[in-house]
Amino acid sequence: MLAITRKAAIRDLLAEQKSVSIADLARRLNVNRETIRRDLKEMEEKGELIRTHGGAYILDGVKNDLTVDTRQVLMIPEKETIAKKCGELIQPGDYVLLDGSTTCWFIARMLKNRPVTVLTNSLEIANILSDSESVKLMLTGGEYSPANKTFTGMAAVGFLEAHYVDRAFISCRSADLAAGITDTNDTSAAFRKAAINHARESYLVLDHTKLDKVSFSRIAALDVLTGCVLDTDFPESWKEKLPEAGVRMY
Question: pTM above the 0.70 mark?
Fold first, then answer.
């Protein structure tokens, strides 16, 4: 198969799935993995995709959902920076809600030796905190999603609606000054909306690549947040609008 044909096939798969793995592409296109790695490198140099360990992804379209296997290897230093900032916001004795985002995995690691109560719908966060002697752990019910390692659905939302926390930390797929906080599907959006509504303080945690983009399902307007935690300095337009909306920047 010619390189131009392979790359066209890769573009088609990325348009449909938003992320691809080297192993799957090699199988589909009947070539070795090194050939796929070379193709992805050339396509990244042209700005067509973003490479990850073991594959590639694109940030395009309102229905842009990435698997947890892809998300957990993306933006690791950025997530560590966000987690450190969040750790400074959490006080001993707090009841803290962490959603199932991979960013919140890093926050959970920051809390492992802190005297707090953590509510979450994430199996991964439950595993991180399961042997902690200082954290009281509460896991929502719901239907388990292996693709995201989270518990979802009305049972998970109902659990949140029956409780209140001091601080909720949620992520999202996209955030836009006009459209607000958005996600890839209604199920995730409903859970995160309930988290905001049942927290004394709510914080949006996200890396800079999610700014000024819009996804399919609306979570809430930005002005419902207590604060927004970013890995970098905020763009000037955000510095202007967030204080007007009463949202703190971290």
Answer: yes
